C-alpha cells in the first residue's frame, strides 16, 4: 500500500543525498545498495568493495547510502546511481524503470537462495517441514522485513499464500514491516512480534556472530529455493567512462578471488565464495510473482 509519509521522507532524503557534489562529476562511478541490514554493516561492505573497484578500474568510485529500497530504485531510475546491489524484486523494479540497464553478476549463493520463518521461543510452535503447516502462523503477530524485500517479504508472502495464509489472517488482520532483516530478528527476539520472515543468510550470520540477538528465537521453516540478489548497471557506462568499461567492470567483479586476502575480505562481507554471471531472464519468475502481489505494475 502506498504510504505518503514514507514516500515524502524517502524522497526528501534521497534528493538531499543526490544533491551532493559527487553527482556533478560524471567520472565518479556511484555505487548504491538496498539497505537490507544495519547501516554499519553496509558501510563497511560497500566502502571496501568501492575501494577495490577504484583500484582496478582506475576511476573514482563512491558508495552512496540510501534510506530505503524505494530510494535505491528511484536513484537508479534517475541515473543518480550507476551500479546498485539489488534484491531480486527491487532489481526487477529498477530494471523495468530504466531502459538498457544490465544485470551483470550475482553471488554463487543467489541462484538458489532461501528465506526463513522464525518464531519467538515463548510460542508453542515447533519447526515444520510441510508448507501447509504455515497455517499455524494464523492469528499471530507477524512481521516481514522491507515492503520491497525479496527474501523478507515477496517470497515469504508467496509461500504463505500457497499455504492459504494471507496478511489478513495475522493478528489484527495485518502484518508489520520492520524495514530490514536485522530489525526483524530484533523485533521477534524481543517478543514485540511472535513470528517473522527474513533472509536465511542474515539469520545464520546472526546465529553465529550475535547469539544474544537470537537467544529467544526458533527456526520455524526454510523456504524452497529461488533466485535473488544481483548487481545492476546503467546501460550508458561505456559512454561515461570509455568504450569497454562495462565489460571491464563485470570482469573485475567476476574475478574477485577468495584466495587473495583483499578479495577475501570483500567476498566474506558479501557472504559469498565468488560472484558469477547473471542474466535478466533468471528473474522472470520474481517479476511474475511481483506482479501477482501488486509489487510491480
Automatic annotation (TrEMBL):
Give GO BP annotations, semicolon-separated.
transmembrane transport
**Record's signal peptide:** 1-24
Q: Which UniProt keywords apply?
A: Signal
Does the keyword Signal belong to this entry? yes
GO cellular component, alphabetical, reads: ATP-binding cassette (ABC) transporter complex
Q: Which InterPro entries does the record cross-reference, listed alphabetically?
A: ABC_peri_PhnD-like (IPR030836), PhnD (IPR005770)
Pfam families per record: Phosphonate-bd
The record's similarity note reads:
Belongs to the phosphate/phosphite/phosphonate binding protein family.
Name the PANTHER family on file.
PHOSPHONATES-BINDING PERIPLASMIC PROTEIN (PTHR35841)
Name of protein? Phosphonate ABC transporter phosphate-binding periplasmic component
Q: Which organism is it from?
A: Prochlorococcus marinus str. MIT 9116
Amino acid at each position: 500500500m502506498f504510504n505518503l509519509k514514507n514516500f515524502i521522507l524517502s524522497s526528501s532524503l534521497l534528493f538531499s543525498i543526490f544533491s551532493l557534489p559527487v553527482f556533478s562529476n560524471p567520472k565518479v562511478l556511484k555505487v548504491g545498495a538496498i539497505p537490507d541490514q544495519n547501516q554499519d554493516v553496509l558501510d563497511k561492505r560497500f566502502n571496501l568493495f568501492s575501494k577495490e573497484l577504484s583500484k582496478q578500474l582506475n576511476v573514482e568510485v563512491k558508495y552512496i547510502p540510501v534510506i530505503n529500497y524505494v530510494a535505491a530504485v528511484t536513484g537508479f531510475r534517475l541515473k543518480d546511481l550507476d551500479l546498485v546491489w539489488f534484491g531480486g524484486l527491487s532489481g526487477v523494479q529498477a530494471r523495468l524503470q530504466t531502459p538498457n540497464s544490465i544485470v551483470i553478476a550475482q553471488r554463487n549463493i543467489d541462484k538458489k537462495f532461501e528465506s526463513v520463518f522464525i518464531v519467538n521461543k515463548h510460542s508453542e510452535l515447533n519447526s515444520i517441514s510441510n508448507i501447509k503447516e504455515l497455517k499455524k502462523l494464523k492469528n499471530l503477530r507477524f512481521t516481514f522485513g522491507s515492503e520491497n524485500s525479496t527474501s523478507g517479504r515477496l517470497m515469504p508472502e508467496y509461500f504463505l499464500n500457497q499455504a492459504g495464509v494471507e496478511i489478513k489472517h495475522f493478528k489484527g488482520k495485518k502484518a508489520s514491516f520492520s524495514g530490514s532483516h536485522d530489525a526483524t530478528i530484533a523485533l521477534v527476539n524481543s517478543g514485540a512480534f511472535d513470528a517473522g520472515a527474513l533472509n536465511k543468510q542474515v539469520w545464520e550470520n546472526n546465529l553465529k556472530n550475535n547469539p544474544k540477538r537470537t537467544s529467544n528465537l526458533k527456526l520455524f521453516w526454510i523456504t524452497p529455493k529461488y533466485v535473488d540478489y544481483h548487481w545492476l548497471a546503467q546501460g550508458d557506462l561505456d559512454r561515461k567512462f570509455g568504450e569497454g568499461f562495462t565489460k571491464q567492470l563485470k570482469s573485475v567483479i567476476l574475478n574477485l578471488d577468495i584466495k587473495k586476502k583483499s578479495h577475501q575480505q570483500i567476498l566474506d562481507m558479501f557472504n559469498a565464495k565468488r560472484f558469477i554471471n547473471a542474466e535478466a531472464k533468471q528473474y522472470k519468475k520474481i517479476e511474475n510473482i511481483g506482479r501477482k502481489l501488486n509489487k510491480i505494475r
